[in-house]
């Protein structure tokens, strides 16, 4: 889609995966963001500052909260902080900031990165047009146009990161829609569904993903500040379902989605 594998260096497998994903032939998250009317509308349970992995199309399809035009909702959840992965195009360097367009194969969105510190300038000097980048930033809207104000822009050096991002998009989308569907159908225990999502959010925290040994149940309990018996019950269910697995011993776990 982007002129073959020239941008990927010698990693043929990574190039094939990336081309498949960006060409629309690989695993792509469903773009439906509809929420059943009986589900209670916008969820306030998840902090809008939670970093969500998204595609550009999901952002463009996002609804704006009726009570605050600066807020966006996807799958009934308020969204303000996002992670995107795509190709950098049209980089423009100015005195205090850098602007570029990010194309992830599902759409394009403008990105702005302010250079307040020397580290910001160094970070942006490392990325150029044609590079695939990981962008973390705030989702903004102005005069009907959506854009991202980036907090960090990192060049992709391992193209498995592209595959991981889109799989993560799928997982989060399914988790959100499944939670809504369960509530809509009136089946299951809503509090357990909430705890289940909270536990997996811990495992998919960007600060946790790269831990080779994983994390312990005690760490999850301490972080969530929830009753031990409640977390233990749902934690065991995730083990039984294969969502998490043991690593170095019986106490440490990683998410199956994190590899």
From TrEMBL:
It holds the Pfam family RPA_C. InterPro entries: NA-bd_OB-fold, RFA2-like, Rfa2/RPA32, RPA_C, WH-like_DNA-bd_sf, WH_DNA-bd_sf. It is found in: Nucleus. Keywords: DNA damage, DNA recombination, DNA repair, DNA replication, DNA-binding, Nucleus. GO terms for molecular function: single-stranded DNA binding. SUPFAM superfamilies: Nucleic acid-binding proteins, Winged helix' DNA-binding domain. GO terms for biological process: DNA replication; double-strand break repair via homologous recombination; nucleotide-excision repair. GO terms for cellular component: chromosome, telomeric region; DNA replication factor A complex; site of double-strand break. CDD domains: RPA2_DBD_D. Its main location: nucleus. Residues 189-250 form the Replication protein A C-terminal domain. Belongs to the replication factor A protein 2 family. This is Replication protein A C-terminal domain-containing protein. It comes from Panicum virgatum (Blackwell switchgrass).
């Amino acid at each position: 889609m982007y002129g073959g594998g020239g941008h990927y260096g010698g990693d043929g497998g990574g190039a094939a995966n990336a081309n498949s994903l960006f060409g629309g032939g690989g695993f792509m998250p469903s773009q439906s963001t509809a929420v059943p009317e009986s589900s209670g509308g916008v969820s306030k349970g998840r902090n809008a500052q939670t970093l969500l992995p998204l595609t550009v199309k999901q952002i463009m399809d996002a609804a704006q909260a009726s009570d605050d035009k600066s807020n966006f909702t996807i799958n009934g959840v308020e969204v303000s902080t996002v992670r995107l992965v795509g190709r950098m195009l049209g980089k423009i360097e100015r005195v205090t900031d850098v602007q570029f367009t990010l194309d992830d194969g599902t759409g394009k969105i403008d990105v702005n990165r302010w250079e307040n510190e020397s580290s910001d300038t160094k970070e942006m000097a490392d990325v150029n047009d044609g590079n695939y980048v990981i962008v973390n930033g705030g989702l903004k809207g102005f005069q009907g146009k959506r854009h991202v104000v980036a907090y960090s822009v990192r060049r992709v050096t391992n193209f498995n990161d592209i595959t991981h991002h889109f799989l993560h998009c799928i997982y989060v989308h399914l988790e959100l829609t499944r939670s809504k569907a369960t509530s809509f159908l009136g089946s299951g225990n809503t509090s357990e569904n909430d705890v289940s999502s909270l536990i997996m959010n811990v495992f998919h925290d960007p600060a946790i993903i790269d831990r080779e040994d994983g994390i312990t149940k005690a760490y999850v309990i301490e972080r969530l500040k929830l009753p031990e018996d409640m977390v233990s019950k749902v934690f065991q269910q995730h083990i039984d379902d294969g969502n998490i697995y043991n690593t170095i011993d019986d106490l440490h776990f990683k998410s199956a989605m994190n590899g």
